[in-house]
Amino acid sequence: MASHRRPKQPSRTRVTVLTTAAAAAVALSANVANAAPSEKPSKDEVKAKVDKLYEEAEKATEKLDGAKEKQEKLQKEIGSLQDNVARGQEDLNTLRDGLGSMASAQYRTGGIDPSVALFLSSDPDSYLDKASAMDQLSAQQVESLKKVQEKQRSLAQQRSEASEKLKDLADTRTELAKKKKEVQGKLGEAQKLLNSLTAKEKAALAAKEQERATRATERVNLGSSKGSGRAGAAFAAAQGAIGSPYVYGASGPSSFDCSGLTSWAYAQAGVSIPRTSEAQANAGTRIYSQSALQVGDLVIFYGDFHHVGLYAGNGQVLHAPHTGAVVRYEAIGNMPFQFGVRI
After folding, report:
1. What is the largest CA-CA distance in the chain?
2. Is the pTM of this model over 0.85?
3. How confident is the model at residue 124 (pLDDT cuts 50, 70, 90)?
């Protein structure tokens, strides 16, 4: 006999859930269909982001330069210490050999009572001369022992110092690798952003940069000041580097980062200044008024002193700006001026 049971009706709760889900799906589809595609950033927005990345990369570059400078200094100090230790060990070995000879001589002659030796001697005068020599030899031995002890202490101290510097060198190399990776990461991000621009947009940005550099050059030429003394000679050397590319960690003669340019320029004038912009900020007399700056003075930018250039006169600075740019003139007002430094 066939069953005449009524089919089971879906529960009210299930119907509500299904209806809600269907409505949500329809709404989502409508939103997707009506949503505006994500807008591509304008070339000016890209430029602002790239400039920020370049600034961050330059901060890391100055830290990188500092680590490189510290590494070179440590390597020289370690080399000097190791040479001193080697020479000291040779001196110590010589002292020990001398002590050994004295000890052997005493052993050979020290087994007979002096009064018996004198009684048995066929030449009492000769014996007395030898006895006097033995007293002198004993005094020399005491002095040699003191020298051996002093040399051992000195060598132990130098070895300990060399060991500490080797550890410091290892830490510095780790920091160097970290900073290099950080710089490369920032530059990679910047390049990725630049690659998102069209050829027309890239050309427009390049033209704007060129126009700014041209105006700065014209302003310098109007000032026509060449500077004097060592500062003037440093500025003249930097002028010869105009057009050289910015390369992080480079200090000439064909490429530079910001502090690499200034330290190289002053070296051409026979003046040694520190390698990093932060250290250069403390390398001379600070000049807080822009109107008091003279051609060739260092110009420090940003609150953490991570950028430096050379004052070019007439409100302009000669500097190595950032990756992708070349050594050029630029208005001081384009960056946050802190102070000048007169070397």
Report:
1. 153
2. no
3. low
